[in-house]
Amino acid sequence: MLLLSSCQQKSEGQPVATIDISSETGVAADALVSDADGMLAGASISSSPCTLTDFEGVVLTHCVADPAKHRIATAHTSDQDVPYGSFDALGEAEQSSDIAFAVNAGMFDSDGLPLGYYVEAGNRLSELSRDDGSDGIGGNFYLLPNGVFYGTGGNWAVKDSDTFYRTVSQRPEFGTQSGPMLVIDGQLHSSIQDNGPSKLIRNGVGVDTDGKAHFVISETPLSFGQLARFYRDELKTPNALYLDGTISALWNPSAGRMDNRGAIGPMLLVENIEGS
Q1: Helix, strand or coil, per DSSP, at residue 46
Q2: Confidence band of 198 (pLDDT split at 50, 70, 90)
Q3: By three-state DSSP, how is residue 17 classified?
Q4: From CA 72, how far away is CA 135, in angstroms rounded?
Q5: What phi and psi, each to the nearest 5 degrees, are found at residue 149?
Q6: What DSSP assignment string belongs to 223-261?
Q7: Residue 124 pairs with which residues in a beta bridge?
Q8: What is the distance between the alpha carbons of residues 148 and 49, in angstroms, rounded to a whole number?
């Protein structure tokens, strides 16, 4: 990501277990789901918190974090004060056996630093941004309202940034700001078109009324509207937040998948609780 929106990055690597869609134009979504299932054959699918689904002809990977089984943390910089930049580097530093899955956690600047609010292990490393982009610096982050995904222990939430500013007084254990919001109090973001012309690999996060966090990444390009509708209509999350596009990435160890579409900034780690 250059400047302020990681969506501007165009380089894409080859994930370990995903679908090469470069020549799949016109291929039915159910065929892609079948192909992906075949690619994952032999992996520990039964233990994976991630499943494939078809929504409006688009293949999505849907990963669920359950407070009874998982904890969530943010990660960005190694003990040597160097940004990880990839799941591979993160895996070298973390006990991968504890990781259920991980995703990129939002947007970052040209130095790889988190853009907007960012808390890691209870330490606030970047303050909440309430900038409207009127200084000429644009990008999806400034398609207001943007929002924050945050939590402490097994209590997780997504709130638009203004609501977060007004109502959250105690610093959470983790938090990351991104934008735009996809769903706000059960309604789609007012600036998101039903099916806009921009279609990319995209990912997001939402928390349902049972407190489970739903992480979704598309396996084929989709619009903002499609991703937002999936959260509203299928997952029924009252609030959902866009994390990124183009370099959106997933690490799912139990399925042997580690995406590498380009350098990423902060990450969200969903870790298994011992004995769960």
Answers
A1: helix
A2: confident
A3: coil
A4: 34
A5: -105, 125
A6: -HHHHHHIIIIII--SEEEEEEESS--EEEGGGTEE--S
A7: 119
A8: 23
Tally of domains within the chain: 1
Q: What is the pLDDT of residue 138?
A: 52
**Distance from C-alpha of 256 to C-alpha of 101, rounded to nearest angstrom:** 11
Q: Could you report the per-residue pLDDT of 259-268, keeping only the tens digit for each?
A: 998 889 999 9
Mean pLDDT, the chain, whole residue set:
82
pLDDT at site 140: 81
The residue length of the chain stands at 276
Q: Considering only CA atoms, which of 117, 158, 116, 165 is closest in space to residue 137? A: 116
Distance (Å) of CA 225 to CA 20, 105, 111, 180, 212:
23, 20, 30, 12, 22
pLDDT tens digit sequence for 137-167: 457 877 789 999 999 999 999 999 999 999 9
In one-letter notation, the amino acid at residue 213 is A
Q: Tell me if 69 is assigned to some domain.
A: yes
Residue 17 lies in a domain: no
| pLDDT recorded at residue 12 | 31
Parent domain of 71: 51-130+137-272
Give the pLDDT mean for 224-230. 97
Q: What is the pTM of this model?
A: 0.84
* 3-class SS string, 132-197: CCCCCCCCHHHCCCCEEEEEECCEEEEEEHHHHHHHCCCCCCEEEEECCEEEECCEECCCCCCCCC
Residue 218 located in a structural domain: yes
Q: Render pLDDT for 77-117 as a digit per residue (tens, 0 to 9).
A: 887 788 899 999 998 887 667 899 999 998 887 777 888 99
Q: What sign for the dihedral angle of Cα 31, 37, 40, 42?
A: negative
Q: In degrees, to the nearest 5, what angle opens at C-alpha 74 toward C-alphas 69 and 78?
A: 125
Is 41 part of a structural domain of the chain? Answer: no
